[in-house]
Design a protein that fits this description.
The structure holds two protein chains of two kinds. By secondary structure, chain A is an alpha+beta fold. Chain A is built from 37 helices and 34 strands. In chain A, strand 12 and strand 13 (553-556) form a beta hairpin. The N and C termini of chain A lie far apart (187 Å). Chain B is of the alpha/beta class. Chain B contains five helices and five strands. Chain B has helices at 10-21, 35-45, 62-72, 87-96, 108-119; strands spanning 2-6, 27-32, 49-52, 77-82, 100-103. In chain B, strands 2-1-3-4-5 form a five-stranded parallel sheet, with helices on both faces. Chain B is globular and about 35 Å long. In chain B, 42% of the residues are buried. The chains are: A alpha+beta, B alpha/beta. The A-B interface holds A 835-836, 839-848, 850-851, 854-855, 866, 869, 873, 876 and B 8-9, 11-12, 14-16, 18-19, 22, 55, 83, 104-105, 108-109.
Chain lengths: 1198, 131
Amino acid sequence: MTSRSVLVGMMVAMLGGVAALIGLGLHSSHQLRDDMADLDHVRDASAKVRSVSAALLDVVTSQRGYLLTSDGRYLDRYRHGTQRLDQQLDALSAAVALSPDESDAMQAFKTLTEKKRQELDRSIAVAEAQGLAPAMTAIGSDKDHVPLDDIRESLERVDGLIAASQARRQADRSASVQRQERTLLALTAGLAVLCAALFVMFRRQAALHARLLSAESALRDQLEQRMVERTAELRATAERLAVSESRLRGIFDCASDGILTTDAAQVIVEANPAAARMFRCSVADLIGLPLDRLIPAPHRAMHRQQVEAFGASGAGSRPMGGRAPGRVVTALRADGEEFPIDASISCSEVSGRRLYTVIHRDITDQRRAVAALRSSEQLLAATFSASGIPMAQMDPATTRFVAVNDALCRLSGYTSSELLTMGPDDLNHPDDRLDAEKVGALLRDGAPYREHKRIVRKDGAVVWVQVSGSVVRDADGRAVRLVGLLQDITDQREAERTLRASEARLGFLVRLNDRLRDLQDPQTIAYEAACLLGEFVAAERVGYSEDGGDGQTITVARNYTRDVPGIEGHYRYDDYGRQLLSDLRAGHTVVRPDIPQDPTLSEDEKAAHAKLQLGATVNVPLLRDAELDAVFFVHSAAPRQWTAAEVSLIEDVALRIRADISRARAQAATSAARAKLEAALGSMSDSVMLSDPEGRFVEFNDAFVSFHRFGTRAECSSALARYADLFDVWAADGSPVPFEQWAVPRALRGEAASSVEYRLRRRDSDQSWVGSFSFAPIRAEDGRILGAVVTGRDVTELKNTQEQLARSHATLQHLFANLQGAQEDERKRIARELHDDLQQSLAAIRMDAVAAGERMAKGRRDIEPLLARIDRLSGAAIDSTRRIVNDLRPEMLEELGLVPALEAMCAEFAQTWSIDCRLEVSGAEMPKLRDSPVLSVGLYRMAQEALNNVAKHARASTVRIQLECDHSGLVTLRVTDNGVGMPARETRNPASFGLLGMSERVRMLGGHLRIEAQAGQGTVIEALLPIAGASPTDASSQTAGPALALTATDRPSNVSVRDVLGRPLQSVIDALDGNVAVLDSSGIIRFVNRAWTEFAARHGNPELKGCGPGVSYLDVCRRSTAAEPLSGSALQGLQAVLAGQAESFVAEYPCQSPEAEGWFRMHAGSIIGGWLIVSHVGIHRPDGREAPAGAGGGGNVD
Amino acid sequence: MKVLLVDDSASVRASFGDMLDAVPGVDVIGHAEDVAGAVSLIEQCKPDLIVLDVELRHGGHGLQVLNWVMHTRPELSVIVLSNFTWHAMRSKLLAAGAMAYFDKADEFFQARDWIAARAAGTPVHAQVREF
């Protein structure tokens, strides 16, 4: 029964203890929540006051900026700032003050701020309306001026009140938290693990104070959160305990904190497993053990007394080890190890018995963590103050320094205490103020903050620093500190500046190089360089001047200027300082930084400088062969301290200009030489090509392009080898020429030749032509072959012309021969007629007359028959004479015209040959023929020849002659028969059947002959002739040979051949390349051709003395006989032709003239009227010996 | 004496024939105008004397007749009466056997006298042959 009572009592006591604990926890929780709410108010008010202060500061800064600079950006910032200030003031009004003092202070601050804002607005309004100066005046005289210090004081008062309130709340809160902590200690053994984890984290990040602070806050937050959670958990547990003891026991057993219950005698009556684990023994071991056995022996007595005193005091519960916070109780494990515990004891009466409940927690790890934390904090503080890196901590709300280190003091020159009254902008250079936006971003988002800026040391020196900012936040993420880290980067900046200058200089030199590279004109080069340099060094005038060469003056050409006039012209060195010329001549750059103050210059010299607006100058001499050649100058209108780098750059540029001018002059000379060469080559009609020793074409002219049948220069390869693929080459004798025997390889081997004929063929287009090549090597003075020059002339045309001429000549010869044959036939016919007919008749008449006379003498009477016969014979003789005369010269044609003559011809033909012959005439233009006797004769003769052909060959029964003359300007003569026709080859061989005469006659008259004649189908011969333009002269100039011959036939020999034919015959023989002379019937030279004249001129006889017109060619031959035996035979031949004993004479003879050696053929042939043509033509002898042109004729006379 | 006239001109044959008819002892037995006619008549009529022209009808030449006569009837006398006055022609025909050569326009009298003398039996000299 007793034991049951004890058990019940213990259970009640336990229940009561737990309930007390729960109540305590709940109370603490509520209290904490209230504390936190107060704290929030304080923070809110404080933050709002600070925001107003910051906004006001910003506005003031902007106002000052605007008033000092009138820069619109400051004004914008001002407007923005006032808006923000208004918003902040509104926010401040809404802030809750916790005390009347606080409320008053805040109100005072707000009022002052608003007043200040109005003052600023007024000054801005004045500035905008009237300008800066009045604004400044207005500021000075503003009676409502609110000193910033007043505001600052007010702010500090609010700050102080809030800080005091904050400190008070903070203390309350800390106490509350501690209470809570103690309560929680009993329940939250797991927190130790968390602490351990935090410790690891702390240790890892000990170096960073900010992080540690954050972590500390986080720890606190978590504690608070756990407290709330555990409180709720505890309440739930209590509720469950009230329902079930066993469940309570479960909780008791499961608690992670040790729970010991003792009786009044402090003997342990109950222990949970956690306590047993903590003391490293079993629950059973603990039961019945005096409580002080768990304390190290030295403290046991005191411990017992304290517990008893506690029990006697009747207090509900308290931490063990005294009330002081942080007191730690040392406990003793079963194995003898001492360890710190955080323990609470509560005392309760259960059924009149006092029970002590001790809830304890092993805080070994926690203690270690706290110790580590403390040492980390010390380390951080030491680091901060001892670091060589300047650092400052700022209050984020005020952005004023709250902590600075010695390094920052050294950097800024201010003492620590001075700095602590300042903010960053008190250090920052006016142009590098704190960027509120970036700071805002850092505070808000933790955006990286890193800036290069200048700070102004106390001594006024400017130092470049790199500022890195970071933010320290509390548990709620609020920024509690701004930490600024400064790094002196003055040296770095200087190095960068130097580097930039160097880069700029390099960039300038590159630009200069680019600009000058393609320039050719020295003046332009100097000017462009001057402009570039002038812009680069910001000089007023830069130029290049050449020494006058007289030792006194200098000539300034076009120069770069900026805001000053140019100084083109001539100047005397001595006007600008006696020392100037000698220094320049010595090659020294003359630098004058301050001419007005230059002690080396006289007043006159200074005046001369001033006239040119010279404040500072740099003159760089440029020497050539140790003589002053030019001066490069740079002028500044104002005095200027030229840096060594600038002077060096100017000198570099001067040298550069000199080098480029030299280059340009050399290029100009080269290109002029090249232009001359190209012009010379271009003007040559012969293809010209220059090759280097490797056979590459270094130069060729346009004629080269066309000669090789290329379209453009671009198509011409410069590699000789390429041409081997493109061309076939043959020698004049038709043998192929291998590549190594081409002109270029031959010339490169040192051969030289002229007028070598090669036939070229392009393989791609199959074009072929003949070139006459000359080539030679180009040799250096020492005889080395440097290249080759090859010229080529297209002689294809020449060759063709020569061949055509030869053919033409042959045709002429043939025509002469034919003509002579025809003429001979005609003569024979006439002779026969005279001989057979007329002569016989006359002989018979004579015989009859003689017989009649004899008979009369004898008195005979039978003479009448004789007389009758004489009469008949005489009549026949007259007829015969007429016929012959008519044949020679159709008188009827002349007297009556073409149509009657043709009618008569037809009638006679029909009668003579018994062939039906009809004439048909049509066309309205027939009368025109009367005006053209030549055309009439031509038509008549053609009809005559056609009828002759019909009579001789056609075996026709009818023949029809049609003559048409219409408006087309053509007259047509058509002779059609129904005879046997002609074999085809006969029509192609116009020499036969007298067709040659007809075709030549037609050609002479500018017409066209058509012959239709097929075997067995008759023959049509049709001649189409133009009515106009049939003058013998015109016709003769077209086809000279036939015209000569046929017109000669038309014209009797009593008409002067030369009068009629002189000009055309002249042109004909001029075209012949042999030497030709025309002799009259007495052997007198009447005219000669051009070749004859040229030949004579070549032999020193341009006047044709002794061999020109008017000279007897027979005499010429006679004179030559002495020197040239063959001339004798020539003389005889000529005489025979002249005498009509031979139609022509040909002789071949060798000739040794100074210019040629070879064989000539002399040909003499009669033309008409006893006239002769004599020609001398160079020939190829069968034995292969060649005969170049030019020999024979008149030239060999002398 | 029987005389044969060989001439291509009918007028000459008629006129010269009339002239010979008036000569005593001369009997013109025939006229021929070409070589063939002449040879035929020589064969048929056996003339004593032939008066021969150089150019005959149809391209014939007196020399052909003369050569034939000299070859087959060398006893026949042949004189030439021609319009060709060239010395070369005269020499050529005399060399070929003609007894005399007369110019038809100028020497027909001499020709008639030569024939008359021959007919009268008077010895006539042959013309000197020139080489």
